[in-house]
Design goal:
The chain is an all-alpha fold. It has one domain (1-44). The chain contains 2 helices and no strands. The chain has helices at 9-20, 26-37. The radius of gyration is 11 Å and the shape is elongated. The N and C termini lie far apart (25 Å).
C-alpha cells in the first residue's frame, strides 16, 4: 500500500537545492531524495 505522506512545497524546494549542490554530503542527498519522492506529481 502506498504511503499517503506528502512533502510540502517548501521542503521540496530545499531538497532540490541540496541535490543540486555538489558539496552536499551523501546522507543529505539521501534524505533530500526521500523528501522529493513524497512530492505529488504535476499533472495537467
Amino acid at each position: 500500500m502506498p504511503s499517503k505522506d506528502v512533502t510540502s512545497k517548501r521542503v521540496g524546494s530545499i531538497a532540490s537545492k541540496v541535490l543540486r549542490n555538489p558539496n552536499s554530503g551523501k546522507g543529505a542527498k539521501s534524505t533530500a531524495g526521500s523528501a522529493l519522492v513524497q512530492r505529488p506529481t504535476k499533472r495537467k
